[in-house]
Each structure stands twice: as structure tokens, then as C-alpha cells.
Amino acid sequence: MSERLFGTNGVRGVVNEDMTSELALQMGKAIGTVMGGTVAVATDTRASADMIKTAVSAGIMSTGINVLDLGVLPTPALQYYVKTHDNIKGGVMITASHNPPQFNGIKCVSSDGTETSRKEEEKIEEQYQKNIRCAPWNMIGDMSRIKGAGEEYVDAIISNVDAEAIRKADLKVCIDCANGAAYETSPLLLKKLNVRTITINCNPQGEFPGRPSEPTEENLKDLLSLTRSTRSDLGIAHDGDADRCVFITNDGKYVSGDKSLALLSKYILSKKKGLIVTPVSSSSLVKETVEDSGGTVEYTAVGSPIVARKMIETGAVFGGEENGGLIFPEQQYCRDGGMTIAKMLECITKEGPLKSQISKLPVYYTVKKKIDCPDDMKKYVLEYIASESQGAKIDNTDGLKITFDDGWILARPSGTEPAFRIFSESKDEETAKQRAGKYEGLVIEHLNQWFK
Questions:
Q1: What is the value of pTM for the model shown?
Q2: Nearest 5 degrees, angle CA 96-CA 262-CA 82?
Q3: How far apart are CA 225 and CA 237, in angstroms?
């Protein structure tokens, strides 16, 4: 059996510790062998981007496969380019998304623009373990540098919303690109939609000096204040590779990804009834809102590729995750931060300010905890929690989801970093907090016993 390299979103690690140039070179050879045709490569803005991209590209070219270097792009822009160019067999995105700046990663994209399936990842992992034969010197691949992929992506987004209505609305927004991959594309999108824009952290700096790249409420204090003080209609924040997006109301209040998902589900279902797909980690707010809007919900395990493929399979009209990663099938089957911006602008243009729309949604309280946990301990922690939850109503779709009369707990190992996650939800805030604390305590207790 080949070693598992891919997590929930690609292969990730600390640069020059886990994510080395040697690993990237061998990954490139494996990718080139499996994809078997031209591969498009892009990066986010991390300081290690060129090192990892160069190593991966060298590996791909050594197998006789050509590389198209698209430069710095959001992940969904690379995916759109791969999807819409028939001569491309796949893509590689060099990114660690929301992880701290010392991390980087290698994310693979199928020829249809979706993230590679687990079956495709297993083929790459199998090749990775081999001594891969390189092409003769006169048959190696070459590299072409491509310009304009970002604008192609932006123009496609504009074609999938009511651009004229947005342009006439005279909107003003603040946007925080986390010094990441969307530093050009998202301001360009807003400019083309005639939206007055105040930018923060919109220059490419891979150390993320402005704020950590994860767009949590704690990390967005400057944006919350700026949105409120400038009397903007909306605040917008990306993660590092801009496949996700969260929003701020005009009075400077943070809107969780669950609420964005629920609100846009309601808006989309008002035009077309159908199925919404989301992971088990999403708030019950989504299910209640969708059903009240005449739609239905189907749950999956956590991970945007899983959600996207279930959407394709079921013909869903919309889908997404609780972290701000939303998927619009009219554009492409992947999380798309740029498309999320445009659709939210359309929604507030047609339905009114974000603040007033959010106030009409059902109220649930969700508490999230993240506990450092070595990868090789995750299985044992999960088994311990299961043993402490015997007799409860448990869903094993992803980790353990334990349902109570007044809420639920989800305990699952992170697929992107050495951590264990606890989600607790209830309509009573104190209940949600107490349960989150209890299950966080179980994880810490077991880890402490193990390392005594």
C-alpha cells in the first residue's frame, strides 16, 4: 500500500521540514506521469512559492510533460483556466491556503477543473513511491509563461451575475485580500462591477504581515473597523488562496460562513428550487433556511472536493462549506471566493443590506475549538471520544457527530494540519459553549494521558 500524502486539500507541510524541494520534485514527477499531458501551474504569494513551484515544474517536465506557468492566481482562477482550455490535462496549485506562512502545499486539479478525486490522488501517491523513469534529454517538457488568466476568470464571473444591476447600485465596499493570491483579481472584479473599493492587505506579501490568512473574526478587526468607519455597504475578506470569502455588515459585524451559505441558498432557491449540498460541519441554520425556502439539503463529509462531486452527482443548484467556501455550478464545481463576492453583491442589490437580511435568519450558536494534535494521534483521540459517548446518537459521516435534543457536537481530525477540531451548536449559547468545553477537555485529557 502506498503512503498517504494528500490531506483534505492537497499535500501540505512546513517548508524545508515536511514540504521540501526533494518532495516537490518527486511529486512533480508523479503528477506528470499520472496526468500525461500539459499541466497548468499557479501559486499564491507565499515566500516559498517560487521554490516549490520550480521543483514541481522541474519534476513534471522531466517526465516529458509541458508546463504552463500562470503566475500568482487564486486557486479558483487556476481551476477555471484548466476547465476552459481543452489542451490542458490538469493543474497544480502551490498553496497552503489558510495555514501560517511557514507552510506550503501542492494541490492537484483534474482536467475538468475540479480538485482531484481520492482515486486520482492514490495514483499520484503510488507513482511517488517509485523510481520514476525520466524522458530522454530531447523529449523533456518545456515551460511557457501565460498572462491574462486572472482577467479571463474575472470576466467569467461577471458573465454569471446581473452585472448591470450591480453597476447601477452605486455600492462601496472594503476588501481585505490577506496579502494573498486575490490581490489583483478581486479589486479588478470590483472595478469592472463599478463598485467603489477601499483595499487593505491587497499587496502580495507571503509572510502575511497584515493579518493571519485565516479570515476569522479575531483576525479581521481592522476590516471590521474600516467597514464601519467608512460607512461601506459591505466588508469582504479572503483566505490566502481566495477560494473562500467571508463578509462584514455595514455596521462592522462579522458574518460567519454558515450565514453566508444560508443567505445565498435562500437567494438562489428563490429563483430555482433544488438541492443544496453541504458537509456535516455546517450549522442547522442552513438546513432550516433551505427547507423554509422550498429546497432540500444533502450532507457529506468535510472537504470541498467531496461537496463538489456530490453536487455534480445530484445536480444540486448550490453548495458549500461553513468556512466561507461556496460552490456555484453555473461558474464551476469548486470553492470560489471571487464568484462569492459577485453573487453577494447581486444579492444585496436585489434583496437589501446584508445586515437586514442576516437579521431575518434563524439564530443558532456555534462554538469552534481547535486543539493541537499530532497526526498519528488523531485516530486514538477519535476512538477515545467514541468510547466516552456510548449510547448517544452518532453520525460517522466524518469523525463523530453526536446529536442531542438541543444541539450537536462534531469531533473530527483536521485534514489540513496537525490538529483536532470540535464544533458545538445549540440554540442556547451557553449550552453550545459548555459542550464545546467538555469535548475539548476530553481531547486534551486523552493527549495528556498518552504523553505522560
A1: 0.94
A2: 40
A3: 13
> Which DSSP category does 233 fall into?
S
How far from 147 is each of 81, 150, 179, CA to CA, in Å?
Answer: 11, 8, 21
**CB within 8 Å of 324: residues ≥ 6 apart:** 215, 239, 244, 245, 246, 257, 260, 337, 340
Catalytic residue among 97, 186, 213, 424: 97
Q: Identity (one letter) of the amino acid at 6?
A: F
pLDDT digits (tens, 9 = 90+) for 115-132: 999 999 999 999 999 999
Q: Is 225 a catalytic residue?
A: no
| pLDDT tens-digit readout, 356-368 | 999 999 999 999 9
Q: Could you give all domains of the chain from N- to C-terminal order, each with its CATH number?
A: 11-146 (3.40.120.10), 152-359 (3.40.120.10), 365-450 (3.30.310.50)
Question: 3-class DSSP state for residue 296?
Answer: strand
Which H or E run contains 173?
Answer: strand 172-176
Count CA atoms closer than 13 A to 393's CA, side-chain side.
6
Phi-psi category of residue 371: left, alpha or beta, with phi > 0 → left and psi -120 to 50 → alpha:
beta
Alpha-carbon gap, residue 52 to 20, rounded angstroms: 8
The C-alpha cell that represents 388 in the structure block: 466516552
